Amino acid sequence: MVSGLPFQMDNADVFKDLAYVNSQWKEAKSSKRFDVVDPGSGKVWASCPDMDASDVDEAVKAAHASFLTYRKVNPRVRAQRLLKWDQLIREHRDDIAKIVTYETGKPIAESQGEIDYALGFTWWFAGEAERIQGAIQTPAAPGRRVFTVKQPVGVAVALVPWNFPIAMILRKAGAALAAGCTMVVKPSPESPLSVLTLALLAERAGFSNGEFSVMTTSLANTPGLSEALCRHPNVRKVTFTGSTRVGKLVAKLCSDGLKKVTLELGGNCPFLIFDDADLNQAADALMLLKWRHAGQACITANRVYVQSGVYDKFADIIREKTSKLKVGHGADSGTTMGPVTTPNGLTKASAQVADAKSKGGQVILGGNRVNGTEGFFFEPTIITDAKPGMLISEEETFAPVMALFKFDNEEEAVKRANDTSMGLASYFFTKNVDRTWRLLENLEAGMIGMNTGNSSAAESPFGGIKESGYGKESGKDVAVAEYMITKTGTLTLDGHY
Ligand SMILES: O=CCCC(=O)O
């Protein structure tokens, strides 16, 4: 056991609590460190270097020097390194999962599930590396050929959230490293340690000399360090997953240097259940989607719309299933729902419940913080009679609170589902084929789940529209393209000019 860790590891040598810059394990220039808190107990269990803007230049310059050679590394070698990384993460899956649980609070089975999901990305992008292709064309002008080549854009920066620390990194880094970019990652202050283990395994897989760096930082230094990364002239690409508010700031900072940007932002996703749906199928899907990581996924169901003919029945089914959840520390066996990751999550959940009650909502399950613990626990909560105008219909909850809204017909359901500035994912359950097609076309979201609440996968383009951001992560061609430029070559032949 690494001294002082609250859990046992099979291979404690993969635990790192230093930043990783230019392939060196480092403290911050300031020598300051910040605490990492276990959301299940509210206790500090580790610390990390508190880097700030003054640490950025060295990291980016190293990543840039490294880019000048890495961009020429043969795609097969890039693929082989990604596969080696994939294999090492697989070998250390259970140790990484324990770290994720102590950082985020999620139950250990969910942490393991996140790693299994994330490994889809390393595997997928290893395959993509060798399939990056340009094109050739015969244009109208005589004796002329036009071709395009794809080249890596340069140093990429990843600003990543705490809710899926492994999946979000591997989805971004897999694409960047396959494309031939080097990457500097700034993990969230809540979840730096699992990312440092990924860096160690990347090093063992052969990524060296600043090809993959991790700069850890506290909440206080996050804005300054992130701004310095976004403004650094050697950074050519920034990928951010997080709130719409911060995404807009990132886009503004990057616009000065005209950097390529990918933004995966807030969700406030609707989940529609029609009278003709298989209610058990819809309820099982909703259980997985909504309570996954205590409601803290960008694609979670935030507004559940149920058609009036099945509203009461569905409310009973979902209440019955939800009441069987076992809330507890993520590392305890039997826990099926952990705490929220930050105390802010508790504040927001309490405020949304109070607001819904004051506007006529009925709390049919839960509704409160779990007492008698220092951990950040909130009861799985279901509110019926939810209405437009309640906070919960307007802002993402990011906590285990589910609101059930009633609707009468398809037109109304679509109108209300689309009545948001966001457009990440939408879900619907119906057995009507005509309606299925209409909803696919009419719902305003980048991803549509049709009789499923789980459409995230390495082979599917992931990304939103409207204020949920732009750009795609994962999926064939599109994700790697986010890290590439297209260069056009024009060649004249046989004396033409
Ligand atoms: O929270 C956002 C990401 C969730 C996912 O990749 O399914």
Automatic annotation (TrEMBL):
To which pathway does this protein belong? Amino-acid degradation; 4-aminobutanoate degradation
CDD domains of this UniProt entry? ALDH_F5_SSADH_GabD
GO MF entries: succinate-semialdehyde dehydrogenase (NAD+) activity
Per the record, GO CC terms? Answer: cytoplasm
Q: What residues does the Aldehyde dehydrogenase domain cover?
A: 25-488
Identify the stretch annotated as signal peptide in this record.
none
Q: Which InterPro entries match?
A: Ald_DH/histidinol_DH, Ald_DH_C, Ald_DH_N, Aldehyde_DH_dom, Aldehyde_DH_Superfamily
- Tell me which domain of life the UniProt entry assigns to the organism this sequence originates from: Eukaryota
Q: Name one Pfam family in it.
A: Aldedh
Q: Which GO terms describe its biological process?
A: gamma-aminobutyric acid catabolic process
What does the UniProt keyword field contain?
Answer: Oxidoreductase
Entry similarity comment? Belongs to the aldehyde dehydrogenase family.
Protein name, UniProt field: Aldehyde dehydrogenase domain-containing protein
Q: State the organism named in the record.
A: Cryomyces minteri
